[in-house]
## 1
Amino acid sequence: MQPVDSDHVTIPLVSTGNGSTNRGETKLSFSGISYTIARRHGPKQVLDQLSGTFRSGRLAAIIGPSGAGKTSLLNVLGGFRPRDVRGSILINDQELSAGSYRAKVAYNTQQIALLPNITVKETLEFAVDLRTRYGKSKVRKRKTVEDVIALLGLDKCAHSQVRVISGGERKRLSIAQELISEPKIMLFDEPTSGLDSEASYQVVSYLRELARQDRCVVSVVHQPSSDLLELFDDIYVLSSGRCMYRGSLDGMISYFENVGLVCPQYYNRADFVLKITSPSKPEISKVYQSMHQMESIVDNIQSKPKTKQPKPGSQYPTSNWHQFITLTRRSALSTIRNYILSILRLGGLILLGAMIGIIYYDIGNDASKIISNTAFLCISLALVVFINAVAVVLSFPMEMTVLTREHQANCYSIAAYYFAKLTTDFVPMIIGNACFHTITYYMTGQPVELDRFLRFGAILLLTGWFGQIFGLFGGSTFSIQLAPFVVPVAILTMVLFGGFFIRFNELVPFLRPLIHVSPFKYAFEGVAQAVYGFNRTNLACSAGSDDARVCPFQTGDQVLAMLDMDQADYGVDVGGLAVIVGVMHVVVYVCLWVKVR
């Protein structure tokens, strides 16, 4: 195999103030990195006094058996350090803040986080808008996208949606996103995982090309083939959280021979290293000897003076407003192309509205069907909440992985994403609820009065809004497996305290406080007031006006008294719903902030 020809396309490094390109050496150094986790049977040392240096222009591989600490080390170097990690990390002998560090280091995790409904080219265009400075011209941004596509061989799938491209193309697209921000240091966690040998070779060839462009490129590789290993310049070998070898690939075998570990002729060097570093092998004593020999080497990082970085500027490349506009455009495009979600939200509400209208046809003004009409009011509220919540629950966990990756890469703030998400989802929610309200209101024969129609619609709007934000809460808090179960169960529980299935004064005393935190209490009171309050005229009795047994409630006030809502106030109900919706927005924002960080 030969390295992939990239047609000598180069993505330039960060430019200096005078317009020239900074081609100085970039060095990532670390010393004394230790990490211990607590376990039931005692603490485990995941990383034990690791030190080393990775330099630009050379492609470095971190290898070792499973459980050796490869990904843990890369997480630390990527800027995602647990609180109990000890040690120091320097870039060009400078200590950086967490935000500045992540701005210089691109970390491509093993889990690929991409939005499936936008094309490869659109993905990179949005990445340019979010990851580069606002003053960058449109011509230069377009040129950057074209260069990255050419560099990583994405020309053939540039106009295909991400959901239909191959695994290798997804890996390369993930790498391309990181290239947009012109990082000096790039870290990759098993970029060849799940790929065949040919695709793996192509991906590592691209990484080698990136390293040759004066970048510091480090990759965790699991059991590479001989051809794949030859693409790397430097090797960092881990065993049980300790460094067994660090240095050039060419010097690795001779180093092990010095401690009595001889690689057989024509044997894959990577397989040899994995074999001797396995804790169950008899050569483990020689491995420990290698570790002690490596730990005795004094690193330059400990002898050179450390300098503090200059005062950093803004954490994000663009303004909050620019982030909001860009994320809103991206989210809207992704939502429009998510046909299943659109059908579930809009089509589902229209279809269910028609079914409800047929089932409860023309009962709104019939005094003999009061119970059926109040059932219609209750089930309408429940359906609006359920449809809006489930539609978000099914889609948001996937977006959560994208949010986590891009926020940690300093692309945008959580607030910008959150408000963009709310704005994008608000419009289809209004359209769907308006269609459901119009269909059901008139088909069920509710009073043809504009003020009552609008009051009913306002309650449905707030209820649907609650459903949407509650779905975001479930999707951001629980896993994709658990959220579709927890959210419907929670909604059904809240419906029980809405006032339809049991009147408020009939609840046992210790459960009555739950009434005031249930949105269905305010929603059901509000729609009941909209339909039967405000001096509604007498209802017609289809069984005859004198038959009190069939039509015991013939006025709006009688119906509200029967529901134990005669003292309710429509304005208070609207305000109560609005407060619950507002509180849920704060709760969801806090959940996002905690989960991402």
Note: Residues 462 and 578 are 7 Å apart (CA to CA).
## 2
Amino acid sequence: MIKLALSLSLALLLNATYISCATNNAVDSHLSSKDLQRLQKVFADGIASNDLQSIFYSSLNVEPTSDLERTNVCQRLFKVHAASKLKDYEKDYYLVGAARTLKCPEKLPQEILSNIYNIPMPITSTQEIFYRITAHKYLGVQIDETTLKKLVKNLEGVLMKEDSLTSLGYAFNVASELSPESEFVTERIEDAMVQADEVDGKMLQFEGGLSVTSLIITGAFKISSDFSKPPPVDAQQAYKFANYFLSRRSVQTPKGAHILIEALKSLSSLTPQLAPICIQLIGNGQLQADSPRLAIAIVDLLGKPLKESPLNIFGKVLLRKEGTTLAQKVQFAPKSSDKTTFMADLSPYKPTRGLYAIEIDVNSKYSQKVNFKILGKVKVQQLELGIGESDASSSIKKQIVAYPKTLPEKLAADHTQRVLLKVLLIEEGTTDKTITVHQAFVRFYNKQEDLEVIYVAEQDSSKVYKFDMDVGARAGDFKYKSGLYEMVLIVGDASLSNSFEWHVANLNLDFPHNVKAAIKKQPIRSVLPEIIHQFRAPENRPPRLVSDIFTGLCLTPLVILFIVWHKLGINVSNFTLAPSTIGFHIGFGGILVLFTVFWLKLNMFQTLRLLLPIATFTFLCGNRLLRRLYGYRSAKASNAGALATS
């Protein structure tokens, strides 16, 4: 029973593995030659820049073309290092790495070497540990065992305090450079992988973008390989990470370009069971019906042939519109001259014009679905052209024109007639299979006037394309310009390989004169007439008598005031010549004068600008005057009370 259970478990495990492999999706793109050329341009610009980091990453991917260029780069390298504001351990790492890669003849300053050799303890970040250890590696200097053990303990302590994605990424990259005692870092791989974010179900990435994602992937793959651990990702995760990296191939910095290439190399270095591959259609996916040969490319993420050339490649051909199957198992054969190209001949299945899809299966491990189309050819079965009276009851004499000839005689039509064209389009190689195309136009062109008019030919219920034009009713489209016009039939469709323009006939069209107005021909790019702004005309004023009466009514309260003052008498005994008294009355009078001027000529904004200082002055003087009057009355009242008491 135990043996039977083990056998069943093993069978289920193998079956599950087979199903998982069979459902692995292949990516639909790779790092193409154009992408690599563009990235090489990024590296070339980086090595010629004054940025220390850019020079370092560029030196890892391109070499100077001459000794003179190498000398200039090396001299510039030391200058930008001195001017760099990066941390000492980071810029020393860039300097040492670039100098060794470029094989600079200059000796490294002793101060820099001392900074590298003297490793301070403890180090507070995994990034610093990585830079210092890798700098020793570039120099070819072996760190003593005692220091390595301290660094391992230091690394363990840092990860206990700081376990961010960046910290883990640098730890993965440096652990195998220390000692076998740093194997504990491999236990943190799963902690990092579970933090990957999925995008649209097709991509995986880490928070922080390309730099963090590449740092973790390359480091996890490296440490897993060095410590003989299982790969950190499964086939589906590798596929999704590959999709993310390929979506970032438009990077513009040397660092981004370098870590992108390194990440794709790491994914391509997986075992054939896990490494993502690219299955891509070659060409534009348009096949001729008489020779339908479908070509695909099967490469790794860098566009190179696979380590193990695929042997069993089959495809299932589907009609996209109908959803039916045309062929169940179409075999792809390798092209002898190219290890990445595989061909399938669809001729035995006799595909007709239309849209297709093929589901490709490679070694029962990878699958990809690509779309393609079979192009057909159109043939003019019959074309009839005629001119008749606009009256529908009258018959039209039609002439048959054979494709691709032009009617030898010139036709004439005036504004009382109409032009009728009928054309039947069929698929070439058949006798009665009509075709519906996306574009069917009738074009009229007058060479003398350089005038072009295009109409749409509509398909009727019998699948015949028909064009019927009333010459008089369409005169406006031709700008009432009579003359000789070329009549051209235009037929086009995305699924046709022989779309055409056919000069059917020459027509002399006679339009009526434009009774509305003569059409003024104005150049398209002429100077437009000047626009002169006109204000609204002022409204008519009322009669002088009405204005005088209204003014008199407004002055009536003032006249009544003076009359009342005259009868009652004006008491000016309390008027003094104090500055506040004189200032208040002058300010008040000024306000009245300002209102009078506002009535006559000023606008509101001008009046407010002048009123502000006058009103402020009047307010201050009035406040002072009222305080003085109040003090005077208070003193007078107290004196009167004292006299009454005595």
Note: The two ends are 137 Å apart (CA to CA).
## 3
Amino acid sequence: MAPAFPVQKVRLVSMGIEKDPKAPAVGRKERVSFVENLREYCLNTTIHGLKYVGTVSLTLWERAYFFVTFIVVTACAIYFISNVYIKWQSSPIIIGLNPIATPIKDIPFPAVTICNMNQVRREAAVRIEAHTLEQTVLQAICSIDGDLNSTGYEGKWSAVKKLLLSATQPCSRMLKACRYAKQTEKCTEIFQSVLTDEGLCCTFNTLDAAHMFRVTGTVNIFPSDGAASTDAHSTNRFRPLLWTPETGFEEEPTNATYPRAIPGPGVSMGLAMVLDANVSDYYCSSTSSTGFKIIFHSPTETPKITDYAQYIPVGSENRIIITPKINDAARQIRKIAQATRQCVFASEANLSYYRVYSRNNCELECEAKLILENCGCVLYFLPKLYEDTKICSRADARCYELIRNSIAFTSNTSVSCSCLPGCFEISYVPDLTSAELHVGQFGIRESMLDGVKDEQYAKENLALVYVFVKDTYYRSFTKGELVGFTDFLSNVGGLLGLFLGFSIISLIEVIYFVTLRPYSARRKQRPIRDRQTDVTEMNPTIVSRREFLKFAPKPQVQFVGLPSDFGIDGNRWQRDHKGSNTMVTELTAKLKHVVHSRMQQAGGWVRDTFRFRKSQHGMERSARTGTIYPFYE
């Protein structure tokens, strides 16, 4: 006989069991929490060590051990990365020798500026009357102290210029013969007059005034002496070219352009000159000897003769080997601050007088501005922006000498010129050797001295100078990044990989688990809940059985025909009916029947439950996609 199962009273609605309103909905999943998301990240991340922290099968002490280790290793990585960052910020620049040599055809021949040590010709000085404006200008040029208040000196540039052109030795008289690159040249065509701190001098291979000065109408340093010092410009034989240390020649230089490129190595391809000091016409000299001062500089600069020029004595033959010193910079250092890289690019220059930036031009312009602000005048050889700028006289000497000394004294911070060198600059290092000049005693090969017959005059007044280079290639010194951003990123990546196994993919994983993963989990739960609801509506009987198995109390077995207090163990019955074998046999048979029917019923429940789970979660699709569902977890 089938057993009876007394159950709790339930109401059947649509052949199903009435649900408790407080019970959770069928198939509902709670929202993914932060802790669960963090645990899933630790188990799946590529960063070393975190998977042990997120593994729940490990003990708390084991997980704490790996967590503390991870924190210590992270701190070490941060410490070493900070050292790399400090090095990147404090020492970003390195100066190295450029592996690519520069050919001399891309290097301009040095600008050569020559000054006679005699600043004023005696012939012109003796014609100047006392207590006149010309005498005041003469005192300013020769730095002679006298009766400074005897004349109404106004300091006009026109008066100073007039005296300079008439009282100093012109280039046509100082330069007797010239030759450049094996070709004899007229000296007044390749040299021009230039104002320096030594007075009126002669310069070769400088930029044209239109390319050197920013404003066309400014008072430039190339005054015309009215003679042949500017024949090159009047005859238009040579065409000016723009050259800057940063951009180079604007077009290919030729023999008809200037500034000229270095034609070739050796004395024959250089510049040769015969100089005449005319010692008998000396009136005032900046030195205690006779002869010339010579300096080699960039074609874009105004030279400082007094402090940096070399001596060329009379009665000597001189060979000067020039070594170009080229400084350039990598484009990557433009983003580094000027104070850190210690140089200025051409686009960053803010000069008012000169068009091309160099440290020398910046210092000259700064000196002129400081003297003008403090003394109300400008020295005759310094940059002047306006024609009516007052030229300093000896009466202003105390003021402008104080300013110039303060600028030269590097420890002084009250009056100084903070001029950084250009990132692209070129300078020329001379190596001078000389020998005594002999003319007329024996035959010589130099054709420029053919017209010189007086040996005594040659020893007392003449000097022969050769200027040339000896190599065809020169290497530059390049400023570059010591630790660039790519190097910094490589160092940081190496340290993170060494300590943590961190990579760009690890960063992408963090972004994914913080942003995309929670959003995807919420969207994935929505169709699962919808499918479970559909299954519930379509299979109420299956749901009723599952609810019954989940919420019904454990059934108590009661055999029909036996007393209600008769237990399964049958102890009381055995005590009352010990001798009845028939009843024992009957009881055994009934017990077997009950167990068999109960197992059949349980088997049916199991099959129905598995069939429901399979239809609910799509076991056929999970076998293809490899998806793991919560029931089988």
Note: DSSP finds 21 helices and 23 strands in the chain.
